[in-house]
């Protein structure tokens, strides 16, 4: 997700951590994850070589699950876990690649997870696959989880970008106008890439940052007057990838009455430090994405406190491992207002929302610490899902959110 946003400045000083943890969640998470967890010693946490610049290096392509491999693995899991896991094609990318949703559980609360909206941010997809294997297993913990929640995951939701190993999708403005003739003569949207970006040259193969293409009005139809727009305004649903997730969200909302929680999995720059400058950040978290006062016309039950509680569920779970390879956890910058992101749009529609930002996109970090980062994401996801299912999330003090250390940017 990271694209050079500024560090937030809170007026209150960071309070010392209270040490209060999420009651009941730690043991539940340990039980659910037990078959899959193998912790490495902290001494192995830092690789010998870290690229803290912006130039493209070894992206570790072979280490990541490709779109074709993802399809085969989802098909295999669905076949093995018949009656427990359902995999559905919810749309296709601009270049015709399938976008899948994997669903498990029969609980009344829906947790929606998406990964790889930016194609150079890959650990989320691996974490989702691992989570699906664990959550669909025939174990007491997994059966309990499935009775409490309905988990819906969209791994690799931007497959064209994933196959190109870049941030933006593979789509031209001319293709947008062909799909939406009313936009003829309008200026291209501000998030249209036609020049070098994060080591990739979009001049001959343009694309859009799909994570700025959402709109809190889920029935919005693009209008020429709304272009080119800006990062402080909503998006337009002009890309098939965002349309697919929007339509899934709408269908879940119609089925369940609400989508309880939405978690979006991202990466950020590889060498951010914590607020004291003492440790490299393994992952940043956030539950805030919009300034709701500026978007009251779209407010359909915004729940910032609940998003903070969910964020703390992930933070407490990971912190509960103590001296572990999961490393330093921080708060993502809070002075952002992004109604054009999926997190911002769905937050305004009443979902609790959480952002995960692990260190290093592929162009700067490759597949370094792949196992550690994947497990960090998976454990954090499990902490949230368990807290939603048990109801423990509502017992967390949201004021503790401000105790999460800041990121030095």
From TrEMBL:
Q: Which residues form the Peptidase M14 domain?
A: 63-409
Query: Which keywords appear in this protein's UniProt record, sorted alphabetically?
Result: Hydrolase, Metalloprotease, Protease, Signal, Zinc
Q: Which residues form the signal peptide?
A: 1-40
Enumerate the cofactors the protein uses: Zn(2+)
Q: Which SMART domains match?
A: Zn_pept
What domain of life is recorded for the organism?
Bacteria
Family of the protein in this entry: Belongs to the peptidase M14 family.
| Name of the protein this chain belongs to | Peptidase M14 domain-containing protein
- Originating species: Actinomadura miaoliensis
